[in-house]
Description:
The complex is a heterotrimer. By secondary structure, chain B is mainly alpha-helical.
Amino acid sequence: MIEWIDTVIQGVLLGGLYALFAAGLSITYGVMRLVNIAHGDFIVLAGFATLPLVQTLGLHPFVALPLVALAMAALGYALQMGLLNRTLGPDILPPLLVTFGLSIVVQNGLREAFSADAQSLQIGEWQTASLQLGEAVAIGWFPLLVFVVAACMTWGVSLLFSKTTVGMALRATSDDPATASLMGIRAKHVYALALALSFALMAVGGVFSGIRTTFTPDSGPVSLLYAFEAVVIGGLGSLWGTFAGAVVLGVAQALGAKMDAGFGILAGHLVFLLVLVAKPNGLFARK
Amino acid sequence: MDSAIDFVVLRSTPANRVIGWALLAFCMALISVPWWGDASLMRWMVEVICFLVLAQMWNLMAGYGGLISVGQQAFVGLGGYGLFVLAQHLRINPFLAVPLAGVAAAILAVPMSKLVFRLRGGYFAVGTWVVSEVCRIWVSNLSLVGGGSGQSLTVMASIQRDVRESVTYWMACALLIVTFATVYGLLRSRFGLGLTAIRDSEAAAESQGVRVATLKFQVYVLSALGTAMVGALYYLNVLRIAPASAFDLGWVVAAIFMVVIGGIGTLEGPIVGAAVFFFLRWLLSDYGSWYWLVMGGVAIVVMVFFPKGLWGSIQQRWGVQVFPLQRRLKVG
Amino acid sequence: MSLLTVHALEAFYGDFQALFGIDFHIQTEEVVAIIGANGAGKSTFLKALAGQIPSRPDAIQWDGAPIGALPAHRVVQQGIALVPEGRQLFRSLSVEENLRIGAFAKRPGHWNLARVYALFPALYDKRHQPGTSLSGGQQQMVAIGRALMSNPRLLLCDEVSLGLSPLVVKDIYNALPAIRSEGVSVVLVEQDIDAALRASQRFYCFMHGKSSLTGTSGEVPMHRISQAYFGAQETTA
């Protein structure tokens, strides 16, 4: 019994990581109905971008993290302004297909630049240090840190949307870009900010993921699928809903893996399909 | 006061009739290959045909049905594995097993559609991908078909080699001709009109009595049928299957690139796209990842600056259609 | 010198031409009405003024400067605010947030939340409710208040009476004098001819994308207005 509680806790903490992946997807879909097929590849890109900082400059991954997040945010802003804004419109094809092309370019670019070898980011003892709770349950410090950071960032972004002027502008633009421009809001600029914000979240997720497991240029798509499943399970309309969806996914995968080593990921997929069939609007949908 | 206006609906131009005869001659030439071509040429042509039909199927869904799928590889895999189950394990004639595998996959597509149609737009795209992954993982765990390492189509050893090669090749020709003829015929029909209406505006189409949900479902299942037959034929050609290959995202990547670069929503587009695809593959075959980098870059550039693709842009400028699909009103 | 001068303004939706050379002007503290049937081009005209539809730079002169090519987010910074047809409140924003977003352009001036609530007291108690949960009349008040929050010198009102009961329309029109006294000029686009002519000093009548008549409100006989509104159609008995 205690083992199962331990597994559930591992799953919840894993959900924190998935929440970081998913939040960015939730934001860009909410603000501009964009599904970025390259989402996962940019997450992995963040991991690769950290490698030179860690290996050549000798920075600790936690120190490199905010730098990478900032750089990724700038990349997101430039990408939206330079490329993706040209594709947004009533047709869903162009942005989907362009981001699909981007996915291929990023994956293969990474392969050319870094080779197909598995990489990882090291944080030494912190990786495996754990906090003992009672006799049989131990919580890893690192997974706990990831969870707490994910929760804080979700809370921070939520506040940004609900309490700040920028947040109001983001919400207004997602409702009605034409009328938002009557208020003096430049939709293109707002979209770029949304992608920048999402890239920053993805960068944090990417660096944490690179610490947690090894990664290769091909690791991107699987992150997109987890992010997507978390968003659909949680339901559209709120960042906390997405967070909850990510936790459900994490728990499903952990429980599945406990039942059978190869079953974890499939268990997550099956829970996703179940929610899709039974509650297509998601478990925690707001509207 | 007003007299009735005389009008005629023109569906093809004189040039089209010439092209029609040329196409017929081309088909005859295609069928004649086993008598003068060698085995490796036929194997290569089967592969090209597979990619071309795959592209047309993706084009049918996306360009005409408005359904962007990033999970078509599920049907390639289901078709390929369907062939192996039917031919290797149920001992059905392998050549017969190809269309049967297609039908089996189309039947599976029905419950699959119930799942994925709960999602729309970009989410539908990723949803189809998840479903494909589920299929891949499930098949990887089936020991009957060799699990993760796959298996070989050993039953083919009992068929004489040149018979095997020729019949496989002719089946590919048949698939190509039937696919093009069917898609062309469908698009010229009311079905095609309905699809074009959906593509332009779903809400308007619905209000005019087009049963949007039904048409989309039909397109999805039809596309599954065609794609599965591609899978079955491809693996009949290479004689060995494994989950990583059969359910590889690379299938849909290739399909999307061919359609996007060639011209989405036209019949000729995928042909142009396939030509570009194979040309680039030949040109950059020694450069590994650069091949995909260039493909990706070209696709992005085309999508941003020539959203109608290469053929689509030509069609827009000069009004040429090899497969006439337009309906023009001639008054008087 | 006029506050706003429009000369030979044309407007297109893709290949479709909606305006065929409109001449128009308005002074400070003036209320001008634009009347006309559906499809006459009234809303299109306001959208062109607001920058939502592009025009030739010199087609629209604001304080002497050509602004025809400015995009909407720059036009509001110049001091022209549009209350769009159908209110178009932001669904995800509360009443108060809808008002506050109106001030996004940060133009200096007298208008703020307190003054808008003073103008439309009914909004104060509902200020934290979602904007779209209010009645039609109250939503119209929010839309007008939102536009006022940008401290405009010219307020463009597109069919504020559409779908509202006469009593509610009266309430809204009663707010116009207060708006004018702050030095704001108003363009009223309406299908309701009486209300529009009563509230304005001058008027224009649009038909098929052209200005068919202009004059002083109240001085032009109704039959001439009908002709300009509907077009000179001979009906056989």
